[in-house]
Structure formats: C-alpha cells, structure tokens
Amino acid sequence: MEQIKTAVISQSLDLHAAAVVWGLRRKGVDSQLLTFADCAVSGGVSLSMDAESSHLLLSSEESGSIDLCRFSGFWLRRTARIPDLPDELLNEDAEIAKADWSAYLRSLTFILAGLGKYCLNDPRTKCFEDTKPYQLQVARRLGFRVPKTYVGNDFGQMRATFCHENRVAYKTLTTNAWTGDRTNRVIRATYTRTLQLDAGEWRSFRVCPAIVQEYVEKAYEVRATVIGKDIIAVGINSQSDENTRVDWRGIEIYKRKDSFFFLPNIPTDVRQLIAQYCSEFGLEFCALDFIVTPTGDWVFLEGNNSGQFLFCESMVPETMLLDRFCNFFAARSGASGSRVSVTLNEFEGTSEGRRFLSMWRDSRRS
Predict the structure, then answer these.
(1) Distances (CA, A) of 2 to 5, 10, 30, 249
(2) How far apart are CA 54 and CA 107, in angstroms?
(3) Cys bridge to 10: 14, 63, 199, 224, which one at CB 3.0-4.6 A?
(4) Are both 192 and 233 inside the same structural domain?
(5) Rounded to whole angstroms, how far apart are CA atoms 59 and 46?
(6) Are 326 and 24 in contact (CB under 8 A)?
(7) DSSP character for 137?
(8) Is residue 309 one of the residues assigned to a domain?
(9) What is the CA radius of gyration of the chain?
(10) Contact 342, 27 (CB under 8 A)
(11) Domain tally for the chain?
(12) From first to last of its 366 residues, what are the pLDDT tens digits of the chain?
C-alpha cells in the first residue's frame, strides 16, 4: 500500500507551513512544503489531461518533478502568490501575465479538490477570505453582536450613520504590509485606528471603500482558532498598554508576559454561534477575532480562513495548537501518524527550525 502523502501549499518562508510540515513528519506522516511560485520560476507548473486521467506536475531544480495527484491531503495555506516576472516585460504584458497566473493557480486548487483530494479548507471557501462586509452580515444574521458599521466611500452617508458619535474606528477591507523604502526596511502594515469625524484625514475617503465602525469599549480581546470541532480561545490584554488599546497587533504586546491568557470556558452561546458561522462558510479551520466588552458581551469583528495561530501557542504553550492542527490534518488526509506530541518550541529548537528562522530574519533585513 502506497504511503499517504500530505502537502502544505504556501510561500517558502512561512513559519506556519514549515512548522506543520515538520510536525507531520515528526508524527511519521510524509509531508512536503510546496510553493507554486518558486516552482514556476525554477521549473514549471503543468497540468495535462486526457480521457482517462489527469496529471498536475510541479518541476523544480531542487526536487525534480512532483505529481500532486499522488498526494492525499493539502493544506491550502497560501496559494495566490504569483511568480516573479522578468523585468524586461512591458507593463501591459506584465498585467496580462499576472492575471493569467492568478487564474491558473486558482484553478489548480479546484482541480485538486475535484480529483477527490482532501483540501483544508475546501477551495470554494477562499472566496470568503477578503469579504469582511459579508462576514459581518452573516455574523449578524446568525445572532452575533457586531459593531455598527459603514462600508463605502461616501463621506456624507458615513457621517449620517454615526451622527450621534464622533470617535470611530477606521480600517481597510484588506490587510497589507510593505517596506518603507530602500533605506528604511521597517515593515509597515495597515492597522485599525480611531478618527474623529471632523479630522482632516477624511479628505482621501473617496479614493477607495473603507470600513468605519463604532468604537466598542473593550475589557480584552479574543483570538479563537477553530480546528475541526475544537475551538481554542486565547484572551488578549490589549487595554493594559496605550500602544495596543485600539489595535493589539504590533511588537509591543509580545514583550509583556501577561499579554495573552488561555480561555478554557467559551460562553455556550458564543461556541454555538462559532460552529454555525463555520458551517455557513464550509470551514474546518479558521481564526476569529472578538472584542469582549466590560459587561462581558462578545462582539464579532472578523474571520480569516488562513489565520495565524502559532503566535497563540508561543505566548500560551498549553494551547498545543501545532499538535492539534497536525493531528486533525493528518486524520482528515487519511494518514495514521504516531501519537507523539509536537510543539512550536520544540520545532524552533531543532536545526531545521533554527535554519528556517535564520533565513526568515535575513529576508526581513534584505
């Protein structure tokens, strides 16, 4: 009987992908990290089919030719990155090439699922990843409390929505990160911030749609990770530092030992609503963000089909998220791995983990 193979499709310097591949191998499950974009540059990405069969091949200088049809399970972690294009391409041609690569790579995940391969999550759920307004609508319909929200680029309509308030939360529909310039290598990202309705910064509001919400007072925040039927919640003490009160994401919060804490007892109604939310979108894995108000209400903010979760284990080791994820993914892929436990701390202490972290830090500095 052929050994079951699993794969994580992502970028080459993705901590989650590297840790999961290592964890699966540690449990005796054959696993590989596959990167469409890297293979496209060093070899090729090929789909061939006839009346009887299909073959989906990745070719690279390092690994040779890999037939994805021989794998049983895929974690579709990061699939959309297109390969680097030659500098000599005209701008118009580059736009066409980018569009074609995007359409092709998107099709490949559907083909894998159509061939009966297990995919986490089903590729059809990908269309909901960057649909925060729709997520809010679904969450509200299911019964979650959501903030009063305006989405669009009409300043007059936005002001009418918040006519009895002045301070609002402002955020983009997608999260983006970039380096400042060639001399300043600081990574910048789009985060939530608060604005006054009479602030001059609204001048550019018409450029593109944005999400504007009432500012909800917080006791703390929650990152809930869904892995199959399990919901693992970690509380975030965002209100203990001025730098993290509006948006907790940032390096400051990881410097405080009490920043994160385990939440073993999620309210029953919230747990039921999370299960309904995942069922609505067909999700077996996702990360959900909440505000918990001073009166104890849980307020839904957003979900992410490929959300980060290892930072939760890094700060709260008893969550054992890496082990939970590897066990779930292996079982759903049909693999029977060993019961050995794996941890993020153990991975980072291996030669493989140290090498990965060194390359990752070098990439951030270059």
Answers:
(1) 9, 25, 11, 44
(2) 14
(3) 14
(4) no
(5) 8
(6) yes
(7) H
(8) no
(9) 22
(10) yes
(11) 3
(12) 457 899 999 988 899 999 999 999 999 999 999 888 877 777 788 888 888 888 888 887 666 788 888 899 999 998 888 888 888 889 899 899 889 988 988 888 999 998 899 999 999 888 877 789 999 999 999 999 999 999 999 989 998 999 888 889 988 888 766 555 544 555 555 678 777 887 777 888 888 898 999 999 999 999 999 999 999 999 999 998 888 888 888 778 888 878 999 999 999 999 999 999 999 999 999 999 999 999 999 999 999 998 899 999 999 999 999 999 999 999 999 998 778 999 999 999 999 999 998 888 777 665
Bridging pattern class, strands 167-171 and 193-196: antiparallel
Rounded Cα–Cα distance for residues 226 and 357 (Å): 26
137 with 268, same domain: the answer is yes
Token duo for residue 132: 């925060």
The parent domain of residue 50 ranges over: 5-122+322-327+335-365
pTM of the model: 0.90
CA–CA distance, 185 with 187 (Å, rounded to integer): 6
Instruction: Assess whether 134 and 256 both reside in one domain.
Output: yes
Unique residue bearing structure tokens 């070098």:
362
Tokens 């999620």, located at residue: 266
Question: Residues 126-146, buried b or exposed e (16+ Cβ, 10 A)?
Answer: bebbeebeebbebbeebebbb
Q: Residue 293: which CATH number?
A: 3.30.470.20
> Are 97 and 63 found together in one domain?
yes
DSSP H or E run through 20: helix 15-26
Residue 138: inside a domain, yes or no?
Answer: yes
**Two tokens, residue 150:** 């305006």
- Go through the chain and tell me how many residues it has: 366
Type and span of the H or E element at 214: strand 210-214
Which residues are CB-neighbours of 80 under 8 A, at least 6 positions away? 102, 105, 106
Burial class (CB in 10 A: 0-12, 13-18, 19+), 112: buried
310 falls within a domain: no
